[in-house]
Write a structure and sequence with these properties.
Blueprint (H helix, E strand, L loop, with lengths): L1 E9 L2 H6 L24 E2 H4 L1 H4 L8 H8 L1 E5 L4 E5 L5 E3 L12 E5 L1 E2 L13 E13 L7 E5 L4 H5 L1 E3 L2 E3 L8 E7 L3 E4 L4 E8 L6 E5 L7 H16 L4 H6 L15
Parallel strand pairs: 1-15, 5-7
Antiparallel strand pairs: 1-8, 2-3, 3-14, 4-5, 4-13, 6-8, 8-12, 9-11, 9-14, 10-12
Protein backbone atom coordinates (compact mmCIF):
# COMPACT_ATOMS: atom_id res chain seq x y z
CA UNK A 1 0.00 0.00 0.00
CA UNK A 2 1.19 3.52 -0.85
CA UNK A 3 0.41 6.21 1.71
CA UNK A 4 -0.22 9.74 0.46
CA UNK A 5 -0.06 12.51 3.06
CA UNK A 6 -2.02 15.72 2.67
CA UNK A 7 -2.51 19.10 4.32
CA UNK A 8 -5.41 21.45 3.43
CA UNK A 9 -4.56 25.06 2.61
CA UNK A 10 -6.30 28.22 1.41
CA UNK A 11 -4.90 30.50 -1.27
CA UNK A 12 -5.33 34.03 0.08
CA UNK A 13 -4.27 37.49 -1.05
CA UNK A 14 -2.20 37.94 2.12
CA UNK A 15 -0.37 34.66 1.62
CA UNK A 16 0.35 35.48 -2.03
CA UNK A 17 1.90 38.79 -0.96
CA UNK A 18 4.10 37.00 1.56
CA UNK A 19 5.23 34.62 -1.17
CA UNK A 20 7.45 37.36 -2.53
CA UNK A 21 9.47 37.19 0.71
CA UNK A 22 12.09 34.45 0.69
CA UNK A 23 11.07 31.49 2.77
CA UNK A 24 7.39 32.38 3.07
CA UNK A 25 4.69 29.91 2.10
CA UNK A 26 2.38 30.73 -0.79
CA UNK A 27 -0.77 29.65 1.02
CA UNK A 28 -2.49 30.07 4.36
CA UNK A 29 -1.50 26.82 6.07
CA UNK A 30 -3.36 27.67 9.29
CA UNK A 31 -6.66 28.95 7.94
CA UNK A 32 -9.43 28.30 10.54
CA UNK A 33 -11.34 26.08 8.09
CA UNK A 34 -8.34 23.76 7.71
CA UNK A 35 -8.23 22.89 11.41
CA UNK A 36 -9.27 19.38 12.50
CA UNK A 37 -12.86 19.39 13.65
CA UNK A 38 -13.79 22.14 11.17
CA UNK A 39 -12.25 20.79 7.98
CA UNK A 40 -14.37 18.28 6.04
CA UNK A 41 -11.86 15.53 5.26
CA UNK A 42 -11.68 13.71 1.88
CA UNK A 43 -13.28 10.26 1.90
CA UNK A 44 -13.23 7.33 -0.54
CA UNK A 45 -15.98 7.67 -3.14
CA UNK A 46 -17.13 4.11 -2.52
CA UNK A 47 -17.93 5.05 1.10
CA UNK A 48 -19.42 8.47 0.40
CA UNK A 49 -21.73 7.25 -2.38
CA UNK A 50 -22.52 3.82 -0.93
CA UNK A 51 -26.26 4.45 -0.67
CA UNK A 52 -26.40 5.34 -4.38
CA UNK A 53 -24.76 2.10 -5.53
CA UNK A 54 -25.14 -0.64 -2.91
CA UNK A 55 -28.31 -2.16 -4.42
CA UNK A 56 -26.81 -2.62 -7.88
CA UNK A 57 -25.08 -5.82 -8.96
CA UNK A 58 -21.89 -4.01 -10.02
CA UNK A 59 -21.35 -2.79 -6.44
CA UNK A 60 -19.63 -6.08 -5.59
CA UNK A 61 -17.69 -6.34 -8.85
CA UNK A 62 -13.95 -6.41 -7.90
CA UNK A 63 -12.82 -4.23 -10.81
CA UNK A 64 -15.48 -1.58 -10.10
CA UNK A 65 -14.68 -1.55 -6.39
CA UNK A 66 -10.92 -1.35 -6.99
CA UNK A 67 -11.37 1.73 -9.17
CA UNK A 68 -13.63 3.61 -6.76
CA UNK A 69 -11.79 2.57 -3.56
CA UNK A 70 -8.83 4.43 -5.04
CA UNK A 71 -10.93 7.58 -5.65
CA UNK A 72 -11.28 10.23 -2.95
CA UNK A 73 -13.96 12.94 -2.80
CA UNK A 74 -12.80 16.46 -1.87
CA UNK A 75 -15.40 18.83 -0.37
CA UNK A 76 -16.13 22.55 -0.40
CA UNK A 77 -15.40 24.17 2.97
CA UNK A 78 -17.46 27.39 2.85
CA UNK A 79 -20.63 28.75 1.26
CA UNK A 80 -19.93 30.68 -1.94
CA UNK A 81 -22.51 32.36 -4.18
CA UNK A 82 -22.21 34.84 -7.02
CA UNK A 83 -23.66 35.80 -10.37
CA UNK A 84 -21.88 36.66 -13.58
CA UNK A 85 -22.71 38.48 -16.80
CA UNK A 86 -22.65 36.33 -19.95
CA UNK A 87 -21.78 39.31 -22.12
CA UNK A 88 -18.81 40.65 -20.18
CA UNK A 89 -17.84 37.70 -17.98
CA UNK A 90 -17.90 39.97 -14.93
CA UNK A 91 -18.68 38.50 -11.52
CA UNK A 92 -21.09 40.44 -9.27
CA UNK A 93 -23.62 40.01 -6.45
CA UNK A 94 -21.16 37.94 -4.44
CA UNK A 95 -21.64 36.43 -0.98
CA UNK A 96 -18.17 37.74 -0.14
CA UNK A 97 -16.47 41.14 -0.34
CA UNK A 98 -15.62 41.34 -4.03
CA UNK A 99 -12.46 43.31 -3.23
CA UNK A 100 -11.23 40.25 -1.34
CA UNK A 101 -12.42 37.77 -3.96
CA UNK A 102 -9.01 36.07 -4.10
CA UNK A 103 -9.70 34.68 -0.64
CA UNK A 104 -12.63 32.76 -2.16
CA UNK A 105 -12.22 32.36 -5.93
CA UNK A 106 -9.76 33.56 -8.54
CA UNK A 107 -11.24 34.68 -11.85
CA UNK A 108 -9.02 33.20 -14.53
CA UNK A 109 -11.07 34.13 -17.61
CA UNK A 110 -13.57 36.90 -16.93
CA UNK A 111 -13.50 39.77 -14.48
CA UNK A 112 -14.84 41.34 -11.30
CA UNK A 113 -17.48 44.06 -11.49
CA UNK A 114 -16.07 47.59 -11.03
CA UNK A 115 -12.52 46.32 -10.54
CA UNK A 116 -9.48 46.22 -12.85
CA UNK A 117 -9.15 43.14 -15.03
CA UNK A 118 -6.78 40.53 -13.60
CA UNK A 119 -7.36 37.24 -15.43
CA UNK A 120 -7.12 36.25 -19.10
CA UNK A 121 -9.42 37.54 -21.83
CA UNK A 122 -13.05 36.43 -21.53
CA UNK A 123 -13.94 33.81 -24.15
CA UNK A 124 -17.68 33.44 -23.54
CA UNK A 125 -17.49 31.14 -20.49
CA UNK A 126 -16.41 32.24 -17.02
CA UNK A 127 -13.40 30.25 -15.77
CA UNK A 128 -12.52 30.37 -12.10
CA UNK A 129 -10.24 28.66 -9.61
CA UNK A 130 -11.39 27.76 -6.11
CA UNK A 131 -9.03 29.04 -3.44
CA UNK A 132 -9.19 25.85 -1.37
CA UNK A 133 -6.25 23.53 -2.05
CA UNK A 134 -4.64 20.30 -0.94
CA UNK A 135 -0.92 19.79 -0.54
CA UNK A 136 -0.33 16.08 -1.26
CA UNK A 137 2.97 14.21 -1.11
CA UNK A 138 4.06 10.56 -0.82
CA UNK A 139 5.01 9.35 2.65
CA UNK A 140 7.88 7.48 1.03
CA UNK A 141 9.56 8.99 -2.07
CA UNK A 142 8.27 7.50 -5.31
CA UNK A 143 9.08 9.22 -8.60
CA UNK A 144 6.60 6.99 -10.45
CA UNK A 145 3.58 8.29 -8.53
CA UNK A 146 0.94 10.32 -10.40
CA UNK A 147 -2.21 12.06 -9.20
CA UNK A 148 -5.33 12.70 -11.29
CA UNK A 149 -8.04 15.29 -10.58
CA UNK A 150 -11.42 14.21 -11.99
CA UNK A 151 -15.00 15.57 -11.81
CA UNK A 152 -17.47 14.50 -9.18
CA UNK A 153 -20.35 12.88 -11.15
CA UNK A 154 -23.12 15.29 -10.07
CA UNK A 155 -21.10 18.51 -9.90
CA UNK A 156 -22.14 19.99 -13.25
CA UNK A 157 -25.78 19.00 -12.81
CA UNK A 158 -26.00 20.45 -9.27
CA UNK A 159 -23.90 23.62 -9.63
CA UNK A 160 -23.53 24.47 -13.33
CA UNK A 161 -19.75 24.23 -12.97
CA UNK A 162 -17.58 21.86 -14.99
CA UNK A 163 -14.25 20.78 -13.52
CA UNK A 164 -11.18 21.28 -15.71
CA UNK A 165 -9.38 18.03 -14.93
CA UNK A 166 -5.65 17.37 -14.87
CA UNK A 167 -2.97 14.91 -13.83
CA UNK A 168 0.72 15.29 -12.99
CA UNK A 169 3.62 13.29 -11.51
CA UNK A 170 3.09 13.80 -7.79
CA UNK A 171 6.35 12.05 -6.98
CA UNK A 172 8.38 14.57 -9.01
CA UNK A 173 6.38 17.78 -8.85
CA UNK A 174 5.17 19.02 -5.49
CA UNK A 175 2.27 21.35 -6.19
CA UNK A 176 -1.01 22.08 -4.43
CA UNK A 177 -4.24 20.76 -5.95
CA UNK A 178 -7.28 22.95 -6.38
CA UNK A 179 -10.32 22.95 -8.62
CA UNK A 180 -10.56 25.04 -11.78
CA UNK A 181 -14.05 25.33 -13.27
CA UNK A 182 -15.87 26.52 -16.36
CA UNK A 183 -19.16 28.09 -15.22
CA UNK A 184 -22.19 27.56 -17.46
CA UNK A 185 -24.94 28.75 -15.13
CA UNK A 186 -24.92 32.49 -14.49
CA UNK A 187 -25.96 31.97 -10.86
CA UNK A 188 -23.49 29.91 -8.85
CA UNK A 189 -24.40 28.61 -5.41
CA UNK A 190 -22.01 26.12 -3.77
CA UNK A 191 -22.66 25.33 -0.11
CA UNK A 192 -20.26 23.91 2.44
CA UNK A 193 -19.98 20.14 2.10
CA UNK A 194 -20.59 20.06 -1.68
CA UNK A 195 -18.23 17.59 -3.42
CA UNK A 196 -15.93 19.74 -5.57
CA UNK A 197 -13.81 17.10 -7.31
CA UNK A 198 -12.17 13.72 -6.82
CA UNK A 199 -8.54 12.60 -6.82
CA UNK A 200 -6.98 9.31 -7.89
CA UNK A 201 -3.45 7.90 -7.81
CA UNK A 202 -1.38 5.59 -9.98
CA UNK A 203 2.21 4.38 -10.09
CA UNK A 204 2.36 2.71 -6.68
CA UNK A 205 3.81 -0.76 -6.28
CA UNK A 206 0.52 -2.63 -5.79
CA UNK A 207 -1.82 0.15 -6.97
CA UNK A 208 -3.44 0.36 -3.53
CA UNK A 209 -3.44 3.78 -1.88
CA UNK A 210 -4.30 5.39 1.44
CA UNK A 211 -4.87 9.14 1.75
CA UNK A 212 -3.90 10.30 5.24
CA UNK A 213 -3.74 13.74 6.82
CA UNK A 214 -0.32 14.85 8.00
CA UNK A 215 -0.15 14.90 11.79
CA UNK A 216 1.89 18.11 11.91
CA UNK A 217 0.14 21.46 12.32
CA UNK A 218 2.08 22.44 9.19
CA UNK A 219 3.70 20.17 6.59
CA UNK A 220 7.37 19.44 7.40
CA UNK A 221 9.80 22.20 6.40
CA UNK A 222 11.46 20.00 3.75
CA UNK A 223 8.11 19.26 2.12
CA UNK A 224 7.11 22.93 2.09
CA UNK A 225 10.45 23.79 0.54
CA UNK A 226 9.85 21.30 -2.27
CA UNK A 227 6.47 22.92 -2.96
CA UNK A 228 8.12 26.35 -3.15
CA UNK A 229 10.81 25.05 -5.52
CA UNK A 230 8.20 23.51 -7.82
CA UNK A 231 6.28 26.79 -7.92
CA UNK A 232 9.48 28.71 -8.63
CA UNK A 233 10.30 26.38 -11.53
CA UNK A 234 6.91 27.13 -13.08
CA UNK A 235 7.51 30.87 -12.58
CA UNK A 236 11.04 31.00 -13.98
CA UNK A 237 10.54 28.52 -16.83
CA UNK A 238 6.99 29.19 -18.06
CA UNK A 239 5.75 26.66 -20.63
CA UNK A 240 8.98 24.67 -20.17
CA UNK A 241 8.71 23.38 -16.62
CA UNK A 242 6.09 20.75 -17.54
CA UNK A 243 8.48 19.11 -19.97
CA UNK A 244 11.28 18.94 -17.40
CA UNK A 245 8.96 17.46 -14.79
CA UNK A 246 7.01 15.04 -16.99
CA UNK A 247 10.10 13.66 -18.72
CA UNK A 248 12.16 13.21 -15.56
CA UNK A 249 13.53 9.69 -15.33
CA UNK A 250 11.23 7.37 -13.41
CA UNK A 251 12.57 4.91 -10.86
CA UNK A 252 13.52 1.51 -12.22
CA UNK A 253 12.18 -1.51 -10.38
CA UNK A 254 14.90 -4.10 -9.83
CA UNK A 255 13.63 -7.58 -10.90
CA UNK A 256 15.66 -9.15 -8.07
CA UNK A 257 14.37 -6.79 -5.41
CA UNK A 258 12.69 -9.68 -3.59
CA UNK A 259 16.14 -11.12 -2.74
CA UNK A 260 16.91 -8.17 -0.49
CA UNK A 261 13.72 -8.18 1.57
Amino acid sequence: MTTILYHPVHQTAEANQKASIKGEDQSDLLHPLTLPGYYIEPVPYIEYAKEEHKDYKYYNDPSWRHYWENTYVVFNQKDITFRWDKTTGEVFDTSFDIKNSQDFVFVQQGGLANLPKVGDQFQGVLVIQWNESLMCWPKKPNKNLWIEVIPYPDLHHNTGMELIGCDFPLGRWYRAINGAYACYKTEINVVRGTPLYMIRFRGGKDNVYKLERSRDIKPPHKVRQLFRVSQALKTWLPKKSWGFIKDDVEEKKCPFNFLFK
